[in-house]
Design goal:
There is one protein chain. The chain is mainly α and about 475 residues long. Helices cover about 75% and strands about 5% of the residues. It has 21 helices and two strands. Helix 15 runs parallel beside helix 17. It starts with 6 loop residues before the first helix and ends in a 10-residue tail after the last helix. The model has no long low-confidence stretch (mean pLDDT about 85).
Amino acid sequence: MNGTSSSKGLVGIIAASSVGTLIEWYDFYIFGSLAVVIATKFFPQGDPTVALLSTLATFGAGFVVRPFGAIVFGRLGDLAGRKFTFLLTLVLMGLSTFAIGCVPGFATIGYWAPVLVLLLRLLQGLALGGEYGGAATYVAEHAPPNARGFWTSWIQTTATVGLFLSLAVIITVKQSMSVEDFTAWGWRIPFWISIVMVGVSIIIRLRMQESPLFARLKESGQLSTNPLRESFGKRLNLKFVLLALFGATMGQGVVWYTGQFYALSFIQNTLHVELAQASQLIMWSLLLGTPFFIFFGWLSDRIGRKWIMLSGMLLAIILYRPLYTAMYEIGMSGEHTVVAAKGAIETILLSEKVFWQLVGLVFIQVVLVTMVYGPIAAFLVELFPTRIRYTSMSLPYHVGNGIFGGMLPLVATYLTSRAARANELATQAGLPLPYDKPYLEGLWYPIAIAAVCFVVGALFINGKDNRIDD
């Protein structure tokens, strides 16, 4: 079948690839979903904002190291095969996640706590850097050319479903015990649970066969002997690597993290919504939005990948500030119940009406995520030849998502905190406020990155060639 599999066979391939990738995303995102709690456990308690920023920096470190994982495991995947490599990344991710759940807190071992968590977070980033490229490449090399966007879009759902699963597990654990017990030790359970899921996924993946295109290359003796040199040392291929980064993945990364992680952070830290309700709000938005990954992947097979992705970026540039202004005004409308108070900060439960209004606003952001993310796996695999595909596509994807996207929570929180502090100092000095809406300042980061990416993509991506059989 010219290197592709039947639809029936593809269902099994998708299932086997997706389960492992979903679990890796679950492992990676538990940390971010529990950032507010973790900030009180692994860092010295003096200034809550500094502790939260430290936690977000540790969270971001896992993203920054992802490109190195892409280089290490991408090279291995082009030399040893797709199946072996993402089996290895799955084991590394599972063990690192479980270990984070076992690290004693700052009160017990002092500064060793944040150091150990940082090291484990770096291992998680390395593992994820090798996982995604392998899964996307594996599925694409089985899929027929006229449906590659559709089939690879199922892999694209795993990041969002992994976040959904992490929130669901956290809520379930939280509601099964008292607030005191969850804060004391219950937050560790979601980390421990991952080891069971990883074990099941390893069993499933051991039964997988190698990708037909890679197997054919191996049989013909045409495998790359130096994937790194071919990917980044040859001018033509390096040009495509840079185009993938600055014309697609950089913008896709910031849209993804704004629409899901920054939205959750905003709801928790700016609107001060109670953890379980904030998580439920994001979960409903993700549940309603996830089918659009498949839709836009399918649509990209009909009309091309380029303008679906770029339209998502352009809409994000236009809509982010109005959306977050509406979220703030609705969330602060007074239709809520105060459930806790710490100084001047009140933790609230939203009324049902406000809850669903915010679900709608976050849902719009998730749809933008699906536009930029649904077609991108097919777009990336179609840029590069089989012999260096794993290496070539993994690096721009993980630089775009790991560095530009992954640093968004930290950069945006810093910009927002700086604006709020500037307003506070101006008030104390009796001066006019420098920022009318300080809670919007963090959005300038994703807007600027998406704008640059939109211009580069519009000018230089042709979006027409979808052959991957060399």
